[in-house]
């Protein structure tokens, strides 16, 4: 593992690479990137954030929310994502979501070491909100479980719990995608182009957020058969029921608005996932689950407009306090 060095987010942000060896999916040497915000002088707990598909960590306001409350804040750019992607690698591609356990375990070890074993709250957005519960379920089967590993709770921000769209895509369509994945896993699925969500966010279009559009393209990364099959297998595991072993908070919008092009309605709804599916499957996490719909929230509730964003942070504060965590 490398040492900490300055990150592109500027003052107060550092990163280090986590070497992961040879890619099991045949795309050379891979690594992940752990980012940290300057920790408070008196660290009371820690947070590890995991992004979603076509995404990476850039949400400085989220980091500062936690550090103001005494948390050491860390975020992980997964293999082939954001800061971690190398030339010739297929963006975000894995054939099994369990492969991410390697960088998640390594990140947790670094955080526990740097914070003298303080409790860790996990936070995941979209696909990251599926990856984290699957990892925790495996972690919870080990001696001591997830609590013994230092995990105190989970905050999931619009987690991807099911495949959005028409019902046949979750049955016949999923089987067809799986068959193609067996022979041509990295072939791309032909989907209608859309930049509605991306342009709703970026400061050069209709939004207020400045992020790297190479790491997070406004139109998103293309979707491959193999990657989507890995996601569908993970979602099927969730639907059978997980046991993450710690309390969970699930944040989501109150409505969905699918669109190919931007309109103001996209600013006040989830333009990526079906919020009804999030509501339906949240109970499959196990342990204590709190689901909080946020009126007017975007897909990423923490980069919504000001009012729903503040409501989301207030909800997190209340949930942390209810579970005896710094708030």
From TrEMBL:
Residue ranges annotated for the Serine aminopeptidase S33 domain, each copy included: 42-256
Keywords, ordered alphabetically: Hydrolase
A Pfam family annotated for this UniProt entry: Hydrolase_4
GO molecular function: hydrolase activity
SUPFAM superfamilies linked: alpha/beta-Hydrolases (SSF53474)
Origin: domain of life: Bacteria
Cross-referenced PANTHER family: PHOSPHOLIPASE-RELATED (PTHR11614)
Protein name (record): Alpha/beta fold hydrolase
Protein source organism: Aeromicrobium yanjiei
């Amino acid at each position: 593992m490398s040492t900490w060095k300055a990150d592109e987010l500027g003052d107060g942000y550092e990163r280090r690479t986590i070497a992961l060896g040879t890619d099991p999916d045949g795309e050379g040497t891979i690594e992940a990137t752990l980012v940290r915000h300057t920790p408070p002088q008196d660290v009371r707990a820690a947070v590890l954030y995991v992004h979603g598909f076509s995404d990476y960590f850039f949400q400085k306001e989220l980091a500062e929310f936690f550090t103001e409350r005494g948390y050491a804040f860390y975020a992980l750019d997964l293999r082939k994502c954001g800061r971690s992607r190398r030339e010739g690698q297929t963006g975000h591609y894995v054939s099994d979501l369990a492969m991410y356990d390697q960088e998640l375990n390594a990140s947790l070890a670094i955080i526990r070491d740097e914070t003298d074993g303080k409790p860790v709250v996990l936070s995941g957005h979209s696909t990251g909100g599926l990856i984290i519960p699957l990892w925790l379920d495996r972690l919870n089967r080990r001696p001591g479980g997830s609590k013994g590993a230092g995990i105190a709770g989970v905050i999931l921000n619009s987690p991807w719990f099911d495949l959005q769209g028409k019902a046949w895509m979750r049955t016949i369509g999923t089987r067809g995608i799986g068959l193609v994945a067996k022979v041509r896993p990295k072939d791309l699925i032909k989907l209608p182009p859309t930049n509605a969500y991306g342009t709703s966010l970026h400061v050069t279009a209709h939004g207020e957020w400045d992020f790297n559009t190479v790491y997070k393209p406004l139109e998103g990364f293309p979707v491959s058969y193999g990657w989507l099959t890995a996601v569908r297998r993970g979602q099927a595991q969730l639907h059978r029921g997980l046991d993450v072993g710690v309390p969970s908070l699930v944040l989501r919008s109150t409505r969905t608005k699918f669109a190919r092009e931007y309109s103001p309605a996209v600013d006040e709804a989830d333009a990526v996932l079906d919020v009804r599916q999030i509501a339906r499957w949240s109970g499959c996490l196990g342990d204590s689950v709190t689901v909080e719909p946020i009126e007017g929230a975007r897909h990423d509730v923490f980069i919504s407009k000001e009012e729903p964003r503040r409501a989301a942070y207030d909800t997190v504060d209340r949930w942390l306090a209810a579970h005896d965590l710094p708030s």
